[in-house]
Amino acid sequence: MSSFSHLTCQEALSILQYFTSRIDYIHFIQTTKKFRFVLEMFNSNPISLFEAKGLFTNISTQNLFTKKDRKIPGMKKYILWYDVNYTRYLKELEHKNTICKHVLYTKEERIKYGNNIPSGVNKIGSRCMSYVVTLMS
Predict the structure, then answer these.
(1) Residue (of 6, 102, 9, 7) closest to 63 by Cα position
(2) What is the pLDDT of residue 132?
(3) Considering the entire predicted model, what is its pTM?
(4) What are the structural domain ranges in the chain?
(5) Please, which domain of life does this record's source organism belong to (predicted)?
(6) What b/e string do you get for 4-39 counting C-beta neighbours within 10 Å, with b at 16 or more?
(7) What are residue 103's DSSP bridge partners?
């Protein structure tokens, strides 16, 4: 007969990062009394707060996964994980506590701002560089 070990709260936090739905988190914390308060240990929300309302009560960083997610006032930091165009990125830069992970440079923005891809852009929109004769790095 093999022996098994019990999960620590820290190990549970690592595992919970991979859960994708509210019900998964609820089922997990119901497995044992030890995990009853593990969701309070999260510094940021691993799933949308729109879906996980009331689960992650002690977060200081809010992850926003879709455009439907709304910022909750009072967070130390906001991280946008969905595509944000460059114009929106510039507006978000005004808020020092917001990070955009996927900044898209569109054809319309290339016409407005020029052919040089600006700092902070990490995605180029479809047909963004259409009809551009020369590209330089």
Answers:
(1) 102
(2) 85
(3) 0.87
(4) 7-44, 60-137
(5) Eukaryota
(6) eeeeeeeebbeebeeeeeeeebeebbeeeeebeebb
(7) 84
User: Span 127-134, mean pLDDT?
Assistant: 87
> Any residues with CB less than 8 A from the CB of 44 and at least 6 apart, and which?
56, 59, 60, 61, 62, 63, 79
The whole-chain average pLDDT of the chain stands at 92
Locate tokens 């709260």: which residue?
9
Ramachandran sector of residue 86 (left: φ over 0; alpha: ψ -120 to 50; beta: rest): alpha
DSSP secondary structure string, 103-122?
Answer: EEEPHHHHHHH-SSPPTT--
State the helix-helix crossing angle for 22-29 and 9-16, rounded to 10 degrees: 160
DSSP 8-state assignment for residue 31: S
Q: Which residue type sits at 103? A: V
The DSSP call for residue 75 is -
